[in-house]
């Protein structure tokens, strides 16, 4: 494609034809429109932004998921996304259109409006770069802050760790991994694309959580580090309380990665003093979860391994995914 803005005729066909699907969205993407308009009717507006840099696999879809998950971690219902897509000159129109298809598929799936964005071909990027901004809404009394964790809170994680990282790694070395995974594990991993969202658990947990954090870059260790630093508290986590999928363990072992430092979109970390009712509601919706430890007053983050050895988490970890991708 030629350097410069994506041609209007391509956007007309693949973006501007999309109808507004939410009543609270008043102005959406169109020719010459550089802004969107949303009627929040007294709620709190929650806004977030994130790039996709670790993978090209389903990058458009993931670009919507990651910002919606950030919104859900604040207790907000995702409303819309704006997507900036920068394409290198050697890319094709088909590659650009595929990214748009993935973005629109995620928007349909999660009832999110594509509000607009920007797209162009630029020599400053060597592969497609997607940066999405997510917009959500929440009642003031349901807004959740990362810094809200309190001593005595239980730490809950949903689903299994490593969902996103395992999916990325599997699609990078699919043929080799098929030799070590069982048919059931392969089926499970191929379905992980459907388990990346934490919107449902976020909207359930906001009634009971003191803090929430979707487990993304840096994995479990990154998420608990940020929660504790924001809250000025510490934590004690027990490895033998963490429920892990065999497929996640096998893939991490294949690449010799620490899965506790592996990007894990699809799993939410929740701190709460109402763990019984929260777990009951989550499991009632078919969302697996487990208590893995508790928040403590001493601002020290301790991970007790299954062999009884303690590890201190005293900095934000570099994600294990970057050893491979």
TrEMBL record:
Pfam families named among the record's database cross-references: AIRS, AIRS_C
All copies of domain PurM-like N-terminal, residue ranges: 32-138
Coiled coil: none
Entries under InterPro entries matching the protein: HypE, PurM-like_C_dom, PurM-like_C_sf, PurM-like_N, PurM-like_N_sf
Domain named PurM-like C-terminal: residues: 150-303
Entry superkingdom: Bacteria
Family: Belongs to the HypE family.
Protein name: AIR synthase family protein
């Amino acid at each position: 494609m030629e350097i410069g803005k994506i041609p209007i005729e391509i956007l007309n066909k693949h973006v501007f034809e999309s109808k507004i699907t939410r009543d609270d969205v008043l102005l959406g993407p169109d020719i010459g429109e550089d802004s969107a308009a949303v009627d929040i009717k007294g709620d709190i507006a929650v806004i977030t932004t994130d790039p996709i840099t670790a993978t090209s696999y389903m990058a458009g879809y993931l670009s919507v998921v990651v910002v919606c998950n950030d919104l859900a971690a604040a207790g907000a219902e995702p409303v819309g996304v704006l997507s900036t897509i920068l394409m290198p000159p050697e890319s094709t129109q088909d590659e650009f259109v595929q990214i748009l298809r993935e973005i629109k598929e995620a928007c349909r799936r999660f009832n999110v409006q594509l509000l607009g964005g920007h797209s162009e071909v630029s020599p400053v990027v060597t592969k497609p770069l997607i940066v999405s901004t997510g917009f959500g809404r929440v009642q003031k009394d349901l807004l959740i802050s990362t810094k809200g964790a309190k001593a005595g809170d239980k730490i809950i994680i949903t689903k299994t760790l490593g969902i996103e990282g395992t999916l990325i790694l599997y699609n990078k070395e699919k043929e080799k991994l098929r030799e070590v995974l069982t048919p059931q594990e392969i089926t499970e991993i191929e379905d992980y694309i459907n388990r990346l969202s934490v919107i449902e658990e976020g909207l359930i947990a906001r009634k009971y959580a003191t803090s929430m954090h979707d487990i993304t870059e840096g994995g479990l260790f990154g998420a608990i580090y940020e929660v504790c630093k924001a809250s000025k508290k510490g934590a004690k986590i027990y490895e033998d309380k963490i429920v892990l999928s065999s497929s996640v363990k096998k893939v991490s072992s294949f690449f010799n990665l620490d899965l506790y430092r592996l990007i894990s979109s699809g799993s939410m970390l929740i701190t709460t003093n109402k763990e019984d009712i929260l777990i009951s509601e989550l499991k009632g919706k078919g969302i697996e979860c487990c208590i893995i430890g508790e928040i403590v007053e001493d601002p020290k983050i301790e991970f007790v391994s299954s062999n009884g050895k303690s590890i201190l988490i005293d900095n934000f970890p570099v994600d294990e995914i970057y050893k491979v991708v």
